[in-house]
Structures are given as structure tokens and as C-alpha cells.
Write a structure and sequence with these properties.
By secondary structure, the chain is mainly beta. The protein has one helix and seven strands.
């Protein structure tokens, strides 16, 4: 596994700054944490316009941190076909550390991923 170095740290900081600038206070973003009504935690995997928000049930799948700061879920959604309406989510004051990955030195080749942990927003999902 590749280690995060100074160049990767700069890439991470730049992308997270872009992400922060683009976040909307009333809309969850892919990668944000969600507290379920039973107290369990998961993350937003996909936001489907006009349909709803799909959550990830796998904590082992990754979230790719793209050039403009958006996170893309890189895992299967087949095990969680349910959708949740946007109105059911409320933003908390909390943040929680979450795993992301991107390409070492932004070089897009196989086996060139670096791992990082970043602070992400936490939402409550209402019944």
C-alpha cells in the first residue's frame, strides 16, 4: 500500500477545500455519514435526482476523492436498493472521520491508490 506523502497531502487538502466550498447545508453529499433511526451509521453512496438518496451498507468499499472535491462511491449498490427522500435528512453539528482514496501523485494507473481519512458531515435519517 502506498503512503501519503507531501505531494499527496497537498492534493488531499486542495480537493477537500473544493468539496467544502461546494457543500450545501440542506443537501447531503456522497460520502457524508448518516445516522439511522436505530442508531447505526452508514454513508451516502449515491444521490439520484428526482428519486432519492441511496445509502451504502458496506463499510469496506471506498469513496474516490475526485479532482473537484466530489466523492464517488466505488462499490456495489445491489445489496441496498432502498431510496430515502431528501426531506428525511437533517444535518447535525457533528463530523465523523471517513475513508477516501485517490491516485498517488494524481497518476491514474492500476495499483496506485493512496488512502486517507477526512472529516465528513453527519446527517440524521428520520423515520
Amino acid at each position: 500500500m502506498l503512503k501519503l506523502d507531501a505531494q499527496d497531502q497537498k492534493i488531499l487538502e486542495d480537493r477537500m477545500a473544493r468539496r467544502e466550498a461546494a457543500l450545501h447545508p440542506e443537501v447531503p453529499a456522497v460520502g457524508d455519514w448518516v445516522r439511522l433511526p436505530d442508531g447505526g451509521m452508514t454513508r451516502v453512496a449515491e444521490i439520484w435526482q428526482e428519486i432519492g438518496i441511496q445509502l451504502s451498507w458496506s463499510m469496506t468499499s471506498g469513496f474516490y476523492l475526485a479532482e473537484f472535491g466530489n466523492l464517488n462511491y466505488s462499490g456495489t449498490l445491489l445489496n441496498n436498493p432502498s431510496m430515502h427522500k431528501l426531506e428525511k435528512f437533517s444535518l447535525t453539528e457533528e463530523t465523523r472521520t471517513g475513508h477516501v482514496w485517490f491516485f498517488h501523485h494524481d497518476r491514474h494507473v492500476a495499483g496506485n491508490a493512496v488512502q486517507a481519512f477526512v472529516n465528513l458531515r453527519v446527517w440524521n435519517l428520520e423515520n
